[in-house]
Amino acid sequence: xxxxxxxxxxxxxxxxxxxxxxxxxxxxxxxxxxxxxxxxxxxxxxxxxxxxxxxxxxxxxxxxxxxxxxxxxxxxxxxxxxxxxxxxxxxxxxxxxxxxxxxxxxxxxxxxxxxxxxxxxxxxxxxxxxxxxxxxxxxxxxxxxxxxxxxxxxxxxxxxxxxxxxxxxxxxxxxxxxxxxxxxxxxxxxxxxxxxxxxxxxxxxxxxxxxxxxxxxxxxxxxxxxxxxxxxxxxxxxxxxxxxxxxxxxxxxxxxxxxxxxxxxxxxxxxxxxxxxxxxxxxxxxxxxxxxxxxxxxxxxxxxxxxxxxxxxxxxxxxxxxxxxxxxxxxxxxxxxxxxxxxxxxxxxxxxxxxxxxxxx
Length: 361
Hints:
The chain is mainly alpha-helical.
């Protein structure tokens, strides 16, 4: 049977989605070829040093490895505290254990799945909604925790550059001020939702005028947002705790990288360590491959060699230890946590999934 478009009925090619998938199938092949080229390139670059790196790994100091694992656990716990504190400001009291378990599960998804950041965000949103957070509070927590984490990363990078002695102390102070401003602004808007509503009304009026919509189009939604934001009370104490735990999250991760360096007998410069860490995390935020495999490793190796003063063999070994702990081990623990605590589908999963997709549009 032939359709009006001339396609055979039941033929997968007749479906618009299938046609789009076929049309962009070449993108997967191109990305795969690029990834293969990166792997080959990194292999060629590292091959002369692999023997020395392997010898370095056979002489590893296991005490430092244990400290590396401990520091990574503290880092994950720190981010769990950030999430817990933000939710508490929104009227959701969740235990640290539950918060950290979601952090591990979400991180495992982000590190190992294609488009993992989307899956991990949706997963966190579902869990926070299930804990009793309103849609606005759940979304606000995701956005604000990301902003604070990014500010902390920028702070580390600028601190590393300042330690090099390039006279950019002003930038370091400016970043600290920016981090404080983010926390103060979030606290103020949470305690004064009317101010935010007034700002959004002006923006909405402009958008409605440009889109030739009625002047009051979307006003009820703003009122709903205000009503829900009134349940968020990010006071000075909560804001300060969020900032402290965000720094614990980042500094513990840096300590993990430092311990990995000492585990292979290296003595890294603190400035180069901070810069290498910040660069690796920044590059890792690009969703090109799960866990930033290859390009994050290359960035860390280059940063440790050029900035922290490590020989190439030690840089490769240190990057391997750090990535084994922060990538492979965290992913394994995260999936184990997910399998035991979150594998069973809940009746409200589809509802929250649809709600999350709607809020992303």
